[in-house]
Amino acid sequence: MASSLSLKRGRCESDSLSSARLSPVVVFSPGPGCTVSSDWMISWKEMLEDALDAVEVITVQQLYSSGELSRQYDAASYHGFCARMAARKYSGHPLVLAGRSLGSRLSCLVEAKEGVEVAAVICLGYPLEGMTGAVEDDEALMQVKAPVIFVQGSKDVFCPLGKLEATRKKMNCYNELHVVDGGNHSFRIGKRHLLANQLTQDEVEMKAVGVIASFISGCLRGNRK
């Protein structure tokens, strides 16, 4: 009887560990002009939490100037601190970093430079170009080791898809791209485009979230390297 109970306890502990490994903690940061209390961030936090079966999605508000690279590195240090605290709080659960706009660049900087063990990075509207059209510093992308998924609107003025494709080919990590057809920097799509394709904004965003969930599941199971 004691032996049987011991075996059952061992199986339960093993199942619990396996479940934890597939349930990530997500640290999610917005970009300039967007707060963690905005409708966009609240909506995407809820969608990611549900689709990824996350133990928690922790939103981190950043205070930085998008025009000063040194300030971005300062913000990345704070983001890295928050990521380490999240990993410590949920020990045993994989850490996923996510960001909107400049928040996605910060996530890449944290993975590349802050010594945080990261299972994957989710880039929602990565800003490959600045306000002037000049290509932004992509050092972080070149140094990222964890798998990265980009979700980009096809009409995102801050990230021409051709330039992103060229950048992705130079990256040293596994990466994928999901394009939101007709979407802008925030994935918003014009009514005419939605009507012409018999779609709703919610359907388009849920499709993107489904692609992200499949990608993260593959990462956690070791199928994205």
From TrEMBL:
InterPro entries in alphabetical order: AB_hydrolase_fold, KANL3/Tex30_Abhydrolase, NSL3/Tex30
Entries under SUPFAM superfamilies matching the protein: alpha/beta-Hydrolases
Biological source species: Linum tenue
PANTHER family named in the record: TESTIS DEVELOPMENT PROTEIN PRTD, TESTIS-EXPRESSED PROTEIN 30
Protein's name in the database: KANL3/Tex30 alpha/beta hydrolase-like domain-containing protein
One Pfam family linked to the record: Abhydrolase_11
Span of domain KANL3/Tex30 alpha/beta hydrolase-like: 25-216
